[in-house]
Amino acid sequence: MKRQFMKRQLQMSVMIIIIAAVLAACGGEKYEPQPINEDTDKCAICNMAIKDDQYATQIVTKDGQSLKFDDLGDMYMWMERNGTDTIGAAFVRDYHSLQWIRYEEAYYVYDPSFHTPMAYGVLSFETEEDAKTFIEDLGTGTLMTAEDLEHHTWESNHSHDHGDGQDHSQDDHDANGDADSTGSHEEHSAGGHGA
Amino acid sequence: MALFRSKLMKRISLLMILFASSMQVGQAQALAEQTAAGLPLQDILDQAVPGETVILPSGIYEGPIRISKPLTILAEQEGEVILRNDCLQTAVTIEADGTILSGIHIEDEALKEEPTVLVTADSVRLENLHIRTGAHGIAARDASNGTVSGTTIVWAPPGIRMADKGNGIDLLVSHRWQLTNNAIRDVHDAIYLESSNDGVITDNVVENSRYGIHTMFSKRTVIERNVGRMNVTGAMVMTAEHTSVRDNTFVKQSENVNSQGILLYDAHEITVSDNTVEGNRVGIYVEQSTGNWLEGNRVSSNFIGLQLVDASGNEIRANRFIGNVTDAQARGSKHNTIAGNYWDSFEGIDADGDGTSDIAYAINPFFASVAQKRPAFQLFFQSPGMVFLESLFQSGREGWSRDSSPLMVPPADGSRSGTAEGSRAMTGWTGLVLLGCTSIFILMMRRRKA
Which of B88, B135, B85, B86 is nearest to B115 (CA)? Predict the structure, then answer.
């Protein structure tokens, strides 16, 4: 009788150990994106306050620290400076739903005319279809994957000012206006009350 | 009888309202509300010929309006012409070069995307306006050589978070604007310039906003004699060249965990001189910036006076750092010329009597590095243990940012030290007077006894 009890206890503890191990393994793999706190979060690169919008990105490091960025370009800047070894997971947001998605799995649309916080002009989408529709609707933009982004030049497209800008009817800026009017509300020219 | 009386009363009060409103335009509101919803300003403008000066009689006018030919629009009596806009469009759209709009109150209080005043033409002058906005107050798009002066811009809708507000003045690809003598408060960024060169921002007061003055991708901006209070950051100069930040006062940028008086990021060849930076979380913050000149600033009573992060090739001279919890923090910042500043927390030795310390003031990077790696450790800012650890950390001392010749006493700078010196003199005089009173009192008491 006592022996049986001992055996049971042993079984129990083995089970518990296995369950714990499995849970730990699961937990160890999982990097959760943190929500953006507009009052306190600032971009780990450029120091700007981060708006809880479609341009925000974040890296969760292997030791669980969350680094947030106001523009995908700044996240790449961080990777360039610090390498990718410490990164547990990197997240971007779906342009429409603001859902966090793994940056390797997202689809990207780039155009110099897109107005993002640091003017890198890369937008992220959860599905390829959404990205394509977006390009079609605007009539401009290049579809990219995370792999393509690694070869991207990451230029901040703010050189609207040719020389002294005495006269300034730049086409790229006109395109900006178009982007706004299609409802892709963005922070700088529209105040960003939506989201 | 009662009915008659109440009718009479009504009639009398109506008369009184009419009388009051005709006498005092301040009550024009009451009259206008009786006449109609407001005077159709667009009709008046449509009848004007290009180049005409339209002087608006006092009253309430109905927006939105679109100015598509050059006009000078003035208020007959400043502040008594009210333009009210209840729709979600822009209240005032200016499409004609050389338009002047002056002395008008614009009430555009709905929360919306479209700016209250939108300028898309060159050489537009906006003067002495009073704007209550639920979006950007004044936005300029591809419009240059404009002026905004004497204008007040205030955020209107209550209960909106700062991140969701619009900017006070928002310039995009708009060069050579003069923004002067304006008062802007409770907005997102009080003054925001993006890709807009040669802006002149002087004598403005910016308060309770996210960033007081924020420039991005803009060259040769002049930021002088402005006052910023209680913003997240007073002046934020980002990705800029040849900007001058001079004689400004930034106080109490301390309410937010990311606050600072002046921030330079990716800024090059910027002059930051003779500013007063007081009571902020960080006084002057410089990151990823090169070739800048910081001179003669009075940095006092901040948590951190000067913070350098990956900044190199900057020249930092003759600043005074007084009463900061930590005068300076630096990491990853080499090859800066830091000389002849006064750091009041530093105890130097001046054996040769030349007024500068013979030992350098070296900025220990320990805490800055720890806080970067583990932001939560900022809780240990200046805690005894951290200070002790910091004093133990001496490795790589040659590479630290250091002031090679720290001053033994604060640099003299004539007029500007007026307030501090003045208050000190005041204290002295008060002391003397009190002492005098006491002496007299004692003397009198003695005499009485005798």
Answer: B135
